[in-house]
Amino acid sequence: MLRCIQLGKKGLGNTAPNPMVGCVIVYHEKIIGEGFTSPYGGNHAEVNAIESVVDKSLLSKSTLYVTLEPCSHHGKTPPCSALIIKHQIPEVIIGLKDPHDKVAGKGIKKLEASGCKVSVGVLEDECRRHHKRFLVFHEKNRPYIILKWAEAQDGFLAPNKSQRTENPQPFWITNTYSKQMVHQWRSEEQAILVGTKTVLEDNPKLTTRNWKGKNPIRVILDSGLKISEEFHVMDGSVKTIVLTEVKEESKYLGGIDYEVIDFSNSLASQICGVLHKHSITSILIEGGSQTLQTFIDEGFWDEARIFTGATIFENGISAPIVSGKLLKTIPILSDTLTTYVND
């Protein structure tokens, strides 16, 4: 099962909204097939594992291990449980029952009805951690939310405007290696969110320029549509969702998705509702102090990843205040990365 989890991680950033499942097939204590979920729309892990077995006659005498319950419904691909039954695999070991309402035990029942021996709950805690994005999406009806920011040694998120240039651009607190790590994170999550002020002051691209991987969906908070088409986030190169209070569609830019919400009432909750509607299973919240604090205050977050750089501002915009369980602290040359989880 640990090997299944290892394999599943290879799908990070590519399988959403599907889970990143890993699967191995064992014959006489030897792995004869392995697979993980293909990019969305492609084969599931079980299919890839079965296809990797050279001698298919061994399948009827083998055991299949998988991190998540095999699906039982037709989606983009046929049900995996039917393929397992077709090849008469006699035993299936499952890490975790699938909470998706289209599966939720139906795959297990279908396998058992065919005469297959099924065991559930092997390394269940480890499989839950591995499938955290998928599980939060289906159990809490929202994406897995990662808060990220960088702060100076003295607790400021950004300096006063007097310390900045006139042209909008990011004010870097962290070193090159921390910056590259953030681009890696962007490639791993399905979407990224910032507020109006961050766009107007920094003009970010929110892409994965310093890491190989796909760009995340951009989610922009812009209640009054202050962000013009000259800003990078409006260039149409990546799917972009703008959350606004403006209902006049004549003010909308082509190629951008607009969603109307009420900015005066439970903002984080409404944002989560829109993201769930768009089948976004995970999001990186990078936007300014106010945006980050909104998610913290409403309790809508799962991880907080905080860089502390060597910079000292003495005054400026204070960093958000978050309390949670300390997960780890690691040095990145001159920077420190501290990770908390919402317990």
TrEMBL record:
Keywords: Hydrolase, Metal-binding, Multifunctional enzyme, NADP, Oxidoreductase, Riboflavin biosynthesis, Zinc
Residues at which Zn(2+) binds: 44, 71, 80
GO BP terms, alphabetized: riboflavin biosynthetic process
Cofactor note: Binds 1 zinc ion.
Pfam families per record: dCMP_cyt_deam_1, RibD_C
Gene3D superfamilies associated with the record: Cytidine Deaminase, domain 2 (3.40.140.10), Dihydrofolate Reductase, subunit A (3.40.430.10)
Function: Converts 2,5-diamino-6-(ribosylamino)-4(3h)-pyrimidinone 5'-phosphate into 5-amino-6-(ribosylamino)-2,4(1h,3h)-pyrimidinedione 5'-phosphate.
Name of the protein: Riboflavin biosynthesis protein RibD
Organism: Flagellimonas pacifica
